[in-house]
Each structure stands twice: as structure tokens, then as C-alpha cells.
Amino acid sequence: MPVRFTGSPLQSHGGFYPVSAVLSSQEILGVYKPGDHGSTFGGNPLGCAVARTARRVLVEEHLVERSAEMGRYFLDLLRSLSSPAIKEVRGIGLWIGIELHEPARPYYEAFKEEGVLCKETHDRVIRIAPPLIIEKADIDWAFARIRKVLEKR
Q1: Are 67 and 131 in contact (CB under 8 A)?
Q2: Which of 34, 78, 88, 145 shows the smallest number of beta carbons within 10 Å?
Q3: What are the chain's domains?
Q4: Is the pLDDT of residue 1 over 50?
């Protein structure tokens, strides 16, 4: 598949570099010809090296598979919570959302006080996105604090 680089940040180990990729069939991306679509960071040699290295780490360290495994574990724990505030727990891999029946901001702040960093989004969703290298012990630690906050209210 052809890869097109554009100007969005790609997170790599310990930092960011402004590069991203789009994957598609030749039939779809073949519509674009050189010069048709501008890109601030398109084809930057350093950006391409960073992207290739980040991809190699993802593959060699089996981080996609690890995300699926750890995500299932975390989701199972979160779905066991008993709280009237929770509307839905959903996710794919380690990209997890806890949708609430009420504003998420107070929960986000309580999680922060417990040492759990997350993000409130769309007013009623808590987004949890731990690193792909997270261990079960870290998930257990975070879950204990999340449960404390959500089941206390």
C-alpha cells in the first residue's frame, strides 16, 4: 500500500515529531499526483526516519497485540464497576472511554487527585489512554483508584 505523509504528530517513544501516514489502496490514493495535495512535513527525511523507527518498535515489540490484550483486561475490570454515573464503558485496545450520565469534569479532577491522568472529552466522557507498554500491575493500580472515585459517588 502507498504511504502518504502529512503534517500531524506521530507519537514515538519519549516524544513527538510532526509526521503521520495515510494507508490506502493504489486505486484510492492513486487519484493524487505530485503537487495535488500540499503537506507541511510531507517527505521530510528525518520525519520519515522517525516514522519508520516508530513502526519498527510497534512491530518488533508486538505493541498492537499487547494493546489488544491489556485493553481487554482493563475493559473487563472497568465493566465490572457498579456506579449509577456510568452509562457505558467502551474501547478498542488501550483506547478506552467511560461515558457518564453526568458531566465528566468532577470525575476527571477526582481521578487526578488519586494520581490517575486521563482526559475528559465531549463533556460526559472520560478518556483513558495508557502507554502501550503498561503492565497488569499498573492497570490494577489505576483501576483501584478509578473504582474508588466512581463507586464512591
Answers
A1: no
A2: 34
A3: 3-60 (no CATH), 63-152 (3.90.1150.10)
A4: no
